[in-house]
C-alpha cells in the first residue's frame, strides 16, 4: 500500500508543480447583470427575482453597464488589453439552479485579455500572467435537504434560491504559473490575496469570502523536475480562503506526487476541497464528453466599449499597487524590513484604511502586525478574515490616545472583540478595563508605593532618577494595570521633585 | 350574424369614434362569431370572454369621458399564443406549458393594452412556432376558412385563420422564417414581418432569438399598418430592439403610390417547384405594378439558394438552447416527480412527454450542430451564408427599392399532406426565409386565387431595414388596383363558413 500523499519536500524533490488559478469575483453592482433585481446578500429566498433572472419563457436579458465598467476596471488594473468588440456566449448545460439551463458567459471573446500582475512572497517579486477576465452571471444556490452530509447524495429533496441567479461575476484566469516549487503554494495564496486587495481598492466588489463573493478554483499538475512536458491537471473547486488556497495547492502537490511516484496516473478531474480535513476528494471526472455547446448569445448585442470610455475608466483607476507601496512606505516612514512584514502579513490595505481613520502609521502597524497577527496565526485565518475592522482598531486606539486605555488594556479589548463579547464599550465595561484617571486615587497609590519602597526612594534621591521605574511598576500593579503609566510618572515625578 | 364582423379595423374605429357602435358591441359580435365558427376552424386555444369584454367596457367608459384615445382603441384582436399575457394561459402550442399562466405581460401585450386594443384570446400555432401548417400544435390543427380540409399555414395559422374566418379584424403573429407571411398568403390576408428589432421580443417565447419578429396581421393593408404603428418601436427591455423612429407605415398605406418605385423581381424565387397558378397571379400583380408606374427589373440574389439549409442550422441551434429552460423545475408540465426520481430524471421524463416530434427533431439537430467538432462545419458555416445573403440584399437594394416574389411556392395544401415529409414542409418557407436571415422588412399581400385550386396566393414584398413603409406602399397600391378589378378585397371572395350555432 502506498501513501496517499508524499511529504512536501519529497514531492518537490522529484516534481515541479504547474498551477493555473481561476478566480470568480461577485461584483458589488446594485442590480444584477441582466435585469434590475437587487443583489443584496442574505434576503429571504427567491425575493430578489423577476422573469428575467428566473428565466421565464419570453424574458430577455439586458446588459448592466456598471457590470461592464467594473470588468474593464479589473482588466485595466491587471494590465490587460480591453476588447474593442466582444460578445456574450451561452454555456449550455442542465442544472436545476440554472434558470435557463444555460449560463450567459463569455467564451472566445473576453472583455479583457493578455495581462499581468505581480505578487511578493518572502521579499521576492513573482510575475503572474493573466490569460483573460470575462463577464458572466452567477447561478442560483441549491440546498440539499434530508441527507446527513448536506450534499446531493442521500438528500431527499433540494431547495433552490434564485436570489443569486444573475449576479454579475468576473472570472479571472491566469496563464500557467511556474515558480520554484517550494514557493508555489505561497504564491497562489499571495495572488488571491493580492486580487482581494486590488478588487477592494477598485471598489468593484465587497470581496466577502465568507459570503462566497470571491471563489477560487486551483488547477495543479506536476511534471518531473526539469521536464518541460506538462502533466495531467486536476481542478480543485471552491477554495474559499487564502489559507485554503495555500493548503489545497500543497495537498494536491503531495497527493499527485504520491500517485505519480507509485507509477499511477493523475486523472483529469474536478476535486472537492475539504476545509476541515485539509484534503481534496474526487468529484466528477472531466472528460472530453463535457461539451457546453458555446455559441454567441443572440439575445444580446455585442459589447463595444469606446476607446474614450476605456481611457476615462483608466484615468479614474487608483494608482498601481507597486507604485503605491513605494509611496506609502515613504509617507509612513517604515523601513524596508517593516514594509516587507506589512506586505507579507497581508496588512497593507488594513493599515491604509486604519491610517485613513486617523490612527498613526506606527500604531496601526503595531496592532495589525502584533496582537492581531498573532490571533490570525493562532486561528489559521487571514488578518482580513478575523472579524476585526480598521474601524475597530481606530476606535480602540482613540481610547488609548485619550488616556482611557493603555496598550495592555487595549490588547484585552481586542481579545474580547475576537471572542465576540460585544462592542468595545461593552467589553470595557464587562471586563472592567477603564483606566483610573482620578488623580487622587493615583496619588494614594503613589503614596503607598513610596511608603512600601523606601530603598527605591533613597536611590532616586541619591541621584538615580531611573530607579523611579520600579515605583511606577509598583503603582501600576497596585492599580491592576488600569492606570495611564505616563500620568503615573508625571505625578510621581512631581511628588519626588524630579 | 352582425355585420360588424365584416368591417375592417379602420371602419370599426370610425364607428366607435362617431358613436355608432361601442367596443362592447363590437367585441361581443366577434365573441359570438368565434362561438359560431371556431369549432370548425379551431383558430383559438383560449378565449378570454370576460377579460375582453371588461377591456372593451373600459375603453367605452374612457371614450364617454371624452378621453383622447389611440386610433385602434376598442378594436378586438387575436393574439398568437407565443406572447405572454399576465394571468392568461400561454402554451406556445406545447404540452410542456399546459396550464402555465405567465406572471407578466409581454411588451407586445403592454402596447396593445396601452392602445386600448381588446385582446379576444390566444390563437393556435405549431408547437414553439416550429412548422408551416399548425399540424405540429399539441392542441389540434387549425383549418383554413377557405377550405376546411386544408391547412391555414403556420406557424401562425391560428392568427391568420381567425382573420379569414371573421373571428377578429386584427391579429398578432410572429415570424421566424415566414410564420406571419405564409399563413397570410394561405388565407388571403395581409401579414407583415417588420424589420428585426423594430418590434419588441420581450415576452415572446423564443424559438430562434436572432430571427423571431412579432408583427401585425389583418385583412387590409391599412389595418395592418395601423396595428404596426401601435406595436412597433424601441423597447429597453429587448437589447436587440432598434432605437429609431417607427417607419411611417400608416402614411404609406394610405398613399400607396408606386410611381417611380424601383421593383426587383428575384430571379431565384420562381420557376421549378412553383405552382403555375401561384406564378400566374404573381406575374399579373407585377404587371399591375408596372401599369401603376413602378419600374420593374429582374434581380439576382445568388445565395438565396443556400438560405434554407443555413436557416435549418441556425434555427435549431438557437432553439436547442432556448428550449432548455423547459425542465419542469419552475413552471409547466412535470412528469415523474413521485419521490423516487432525481431532478435530472424528472427533467428527462418531462421533456420526453412534453415535447412533440418536430420539437425533438430540431432540438437534436441544433444540439448536434453546436457540438464541439461540428460547430465550425454547421453553425459557423451557416452564419457565413447568412452574411452572404445579407450582402445579396444589400447589392440588390443598390439597384432597386424593393424586391418581390411569390410569398410561397404553392397554395395551402391538404391537412396531412406533408406532415410526414419535413423537407417538403420546410420548402414552404423558401421565399420568406432570406428576409429573416438578413433582418429586413417583408410582407405578404393577397394577389388572387390560383386557377388549380381556387386558393389564395400571396404577393411577397421585401424592403431594406427600417423601410417597412415601402412594403405598405406596394401592398396598398396592389390592394386598391386589385379591389377595383374584383369589386372588393380578395376576402370578399371567400366562401361563407357554416355557422354551427
From TrEMBL, chain A:
Its EC number is 6.3.5.-. Keywords: ATP-binding, Ligase, Nucleotide-binding, Protein biosynthesis, Transferase. One of its GO terms (molecular function) is glutaminyl-tRNA synthase (glutamine-hydrolyzing) activity. The keyword NADP does not apply. Allows the formation of correctly charged Asn-tRNA(Asn) or Gln-tRNA(Gln) through the transamidation of misacylated Asp-tRNA(Asn) or Glu-tRNA(Gln) in organisms which lack either or both of asparaginyl-tRNA or glutaminyl-tRNA synthetases. The reaction takes place in the presence of glutamine and ATP through an activated phospho-Asp-tRNA(Asn) or phospho-Glu-tRNA(Gln). Residues 349-496 form the Asn/Gln amidotransferase domain. The keyword DNA-binding does not apply. Belongs to the GatB/GatE family. GatB subfamily. Pfam families: GatB_N, GatB_Yqey. It catalyses: L-glutamyl-tRNA(Gln) + L-glutamine + ATP + H2O = L-glutaminyl-tRNA(Gln) + L-glutamate + ADP + phosphate + H(+); L-aspartyl-tRNA(Asn) + L-glutamine + ATP + H2O = L-asparaginyl-tRNA(Asn) + L-glutamate + ADP + phosphate + 2 H(+). GO terms for biological process: glutaminyl-tRNAGln biosynthesis via transamidation; translation. This is Aspartyl/glutamyl-tRNA(Asn/Gln) amidotransferase subunit B. It is an enzyme of class 6 (ligase). The lineage of its organism: Bacteria, Bacillati, Actinomycetota, Actinomycetes, Propionibacteriales.
UniProtKB/TrEMBL annotation, chain B:
Belongs to the amidase family. GatA subfamily. It comes from Kribbella capetownensis. GO terms for biological process: translation. This is Glutamyl-tRNA(Gln) amidotransferase subunit A. Coiled coil: none annotated. Pfam families: Amidase (PF01425). One of its GO terms (cellular component) is glutamyl-tRNA(Gln) amidotransferase complex. The active site is at 80 (charge relay system), 155 (charge relay system), 179 (acyl-ester intermediate). The gene is gatA. Residues 25-471 form the Amidase domain. Its EC number is 6.3.5.7. InterPro entries: Amidase (IPR000120), Amidase_CS (IPR020556), Amidase_dom (IPR023631), AS_sf (IPR036928), GatA (IPR004412). The keyword Nucleotide-binding applies. Keywords: ATP-binding, Ligase, Nucleotide-binding, Protein biosynthesis, Transferase. Heterotrimer of A, B and C subunits. The keyword ATP-binding applies.
Amino acid at each position: 500500500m502506498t501513501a496517499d500523499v508524499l511529504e512536501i519536500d519529497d514531492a518537490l524533490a522529484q516534481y515541479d508543480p504547474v498551477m493555473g488559478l481561476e478566480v470568480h469575483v461577485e461584483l458589488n453592482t446594485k442590480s444584477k447583470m441582466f435585469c434590475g433585481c437587487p443583489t443584496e446578500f442574505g434576503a429571504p429566498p427567491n425575493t430578489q427575482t423577476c422573469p428575467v433572472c428566473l428565466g421565464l419563457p419570453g424574458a430577455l436579458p439586458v446588459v448592466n453597464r456598471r457590470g461592464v465598467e467594473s470588468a474593464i476596471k479589473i482588466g485595466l488594473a491587471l494590465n490587460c488589453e480591453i476588447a474593442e468588440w466582444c460578445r456574450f456566449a451561452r454555456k449550455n448545460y442542465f442544472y436545476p439552479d440554472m434558470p435557463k439551463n444555460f449560463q450567459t458567459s463569455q467564451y472566445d471573446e473576453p472583455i479583457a485579455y493578455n495581462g499581468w500582475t505581480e505578487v511578493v512572497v518572502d521579499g521576492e517579486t513573482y510575475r503572474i500572467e493573466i490569460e483573460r477576465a470575462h463577464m458572466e452571471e452567477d447561478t442560483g444556490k441549491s440546498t440539499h435537504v434530508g441527507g446527513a452530509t448536506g450534499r446531493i447524495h442521500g438528500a431527499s429533496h433540494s431547495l433552490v434560491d434564485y436570489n443569486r441567479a444573475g449576479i454579475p461575476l468576473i472570472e479571472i484566469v491566469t496563464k500557467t504559473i511556474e515558480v520554484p516549487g517550494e514557493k508555489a503554494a505561497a504564491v497562489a495564496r499571495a495572488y488571491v490575496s493580492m486580487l482581494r486587495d486590488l478588487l477592494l481598492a477598485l471598489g468593484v466588489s465587497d470581496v466577502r469570502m465568507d459570503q462566497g463573493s470571491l471563489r477560487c478554483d486551483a488547477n495543479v499538475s506536476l511534471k518531473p523536475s526539469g521536464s518541460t512536458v506538462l502533466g495531467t491537471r486536476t481542478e480543485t473547486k471552491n477554495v474559499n480562503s487564502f489559507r485554503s488556497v495555500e493548503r489545497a495547492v500543497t495537498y494536491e502537490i503531495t497527493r499527485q506526487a504520491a500517485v505519480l511516484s507509485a507509477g499511477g496516473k493523475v486523472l483529469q478531474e474536478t476535486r472537492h476541497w475539504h476545509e476541515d480535513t485539509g484534503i481534496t476528494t474526487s468529484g466528477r471526472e472531466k472528460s472530453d464528453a463535457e461539451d457546453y455547446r458555446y455559441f454567441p448569445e443572440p439575445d444580446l448585442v455585442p459589447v463595444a466599449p469606446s476607446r474614450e470610455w476605456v481611457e476615462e475608466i483608466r484615468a479614474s483607476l487608483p494608482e498601481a499597487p507597486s507604485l503605491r507601496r513605494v509611496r506609502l512606505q515613504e509617507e509612513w516612514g517604515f523601513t524596508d524590513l517593516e514594509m516587507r512584514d506589512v506586505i507579507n502579513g497581508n496588512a497593507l490595505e488594513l493599515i491604509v484604511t486604519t491610517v485613513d481613520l486617523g490612527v498613526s502609521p506606527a500604531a496601526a502597524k503595531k496592532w495589525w502586525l502584533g496582537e492581531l497577527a498573532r490571533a490570525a496565526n493562532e486561528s489559521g485565518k487571514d488578518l482580513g478574515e478575523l472579524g476585526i475592522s480598521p474601524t475597530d482598531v481606530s476606535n480602540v486606539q482613540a481610547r488609548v490616545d485619550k488616556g482611557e486605555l493603555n496598550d495592555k488594556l487595549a490588547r484585552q479589548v481586542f481579545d474580547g472583540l475576537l471572542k465576540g463579547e460585544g462592542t468595545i464599550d461593552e467589553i470595557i465595561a464587562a471586563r472592567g478595563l477603564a483606566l483610573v484617571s482620578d488623580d487622587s486615587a493615583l496619588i494614594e497609590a503613589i503614596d503607598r508605593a513610596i511608603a512600601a519602597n523606601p530603598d527605591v526612594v533613597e536611590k532616586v534621591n541619591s541621584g538615580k532618577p531611573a530607579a523611579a521605574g520600579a515605583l511606577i511598576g509598583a503603582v501600576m500593579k497596585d492599580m491592576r494595570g488600569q492606570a495611564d503609566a505616563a500620568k503615573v510618572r508625571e505625578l510621581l515625578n512631581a511628588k519626588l521633585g524630579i | 350574424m352582425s355585420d360588424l364582423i365584416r368591417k375592417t379595423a379602420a371602419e370599426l374605429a370610425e364607428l366607435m369614434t362617431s358613436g355608432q357602435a361601442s367596443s362592447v358591441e363590437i367585441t361581443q359580435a366577434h365573441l359570438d362569431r368565434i362561438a359560431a365558427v371556431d369549432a370548425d376552424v379551431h383558430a383559438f386555444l383560449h378565449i378570454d370572454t370576460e377579460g375582453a369584454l371588461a377591456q372593451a367596457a373600459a375603453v367605452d367608459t374612457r371614450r364617454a369621458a371624452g378621453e383622447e384615445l389611440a386610433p385602434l382603441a376598442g378594436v378586438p384582436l387575436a393574439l398568437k399564443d407565443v406572447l405572454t399575457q399576465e394571468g392568461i394561459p400561454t402554451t406556445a402550442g406545447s404540452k410542456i406549458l399546459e396550464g402555465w399562466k405567465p406572471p407578466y405581460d409581454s411588451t407586445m401585450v403592454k402596447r396593445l393594452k396601452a392602445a386600448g386594443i381588446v385582446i379576444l384570446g390566444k390563437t393556435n400555432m405549431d408547437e414553439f412556432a416550429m412548422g408551416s401548417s399548425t399540424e405540429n400544435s399539441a392542441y389540434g390543427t387549425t383549418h383554413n376558412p377557405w377550405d376546411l380540409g386544408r391547412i391555414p399555414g403556420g406557424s401562425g395559422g391560428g392568427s391568420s385563420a381567425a382573420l379569414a374566418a371573421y373571428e377578429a379584424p386584427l391579429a398578432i403573429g410572429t415570424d421566424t422564417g415566414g410564420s406571419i407571411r405564409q399563413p397570410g398568403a394561405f388565407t388571403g390576408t395581409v401579414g407583415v414581418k417588420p424589420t428585426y428589432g423594430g418590434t419588441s421580443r420581450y415576452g415572446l417565447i423564443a424559438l430562434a432569438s436572432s430571427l423571431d419578429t412579432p408583427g401585425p396581421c389583418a385583412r387590409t393593408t391599412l389595418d395592418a399598418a395601423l396595428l404596426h404603428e401601435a406595436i412597433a418601436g424601441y423597447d429597453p427591455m429587448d437589447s436587440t430592439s432598434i432605437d429609431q423612429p417607427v417607419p411611417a407605415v400608416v402614411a404609406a398605406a394610405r398613399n400607396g403610390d408606386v410611381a417611380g418605385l424601383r421593383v426587383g423581381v428575384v430571379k431565384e424565387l420562381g420557376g421549378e417547384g412553383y405552382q403555375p397558378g401561384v406564378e400566374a397571379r404573381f406575374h399579373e400583380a407585377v404587371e399591375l405594378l408596372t401599369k401603376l408606374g413602378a419600374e420593374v427589373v429582374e434581380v439576382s440574389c445568388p445565395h438565396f439558394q443556400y438560405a434554407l439549409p443555413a436557416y435549418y442550422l441556425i434555427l435549431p441551434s438557437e432553439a436547442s438552447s432556448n428550449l432548455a429552460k423547459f425542465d419542469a423545475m419552475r413552471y409547466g408540465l412535470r412528469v415523474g416527480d413521485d419521490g423516487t426520481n432525481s431532478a435530472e430524471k424528472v427533467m428527462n421524463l418531462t421533456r420526453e412527454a412534453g415535447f412533440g416530434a418536430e420539437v425533438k427533431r430540431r432540438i437534436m439537430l441544433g444540439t448536434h450542430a453546436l457540438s464541439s467538432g461540428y460547430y465550425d462545419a454547421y453553425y459557423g458555416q451557416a452564419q457565413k451564408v447568412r452574411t452572404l445573403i445579407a450582402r445579396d440584399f444589400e447589392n440588390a437594394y443598390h439597384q432597386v427599392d424593393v424586391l418581390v416574389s411569390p410569398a410561397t411556392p404553392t397554395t395551402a395544401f391538404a391537412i396531412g399532406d406533408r406532415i410526414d415529409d419535413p423537407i417538403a414542409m420546410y420548402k414552404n418557407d423558401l421565399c420568406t426565409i432570406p428576409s429573416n436571415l438578413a433582418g429586413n422588412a417583408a410582407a405578404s399581400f393577397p394577389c388572387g386565387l390560383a386557377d388549380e385550386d381556387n386558393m389564395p396566393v400571396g404577393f411577397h414584398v421585401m424592403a431594406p431595414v427600417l423601410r417597412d413603409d415601402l412594403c405598405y406602399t406596394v401592398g396598398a397600391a396592389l390592394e386598391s388596383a386589385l379591389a377595383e378589378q374584383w369589386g372588393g378585397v380578395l376576402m370578399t371572395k371567400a366562401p361563407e363558413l357554416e355557422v354551427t350555432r
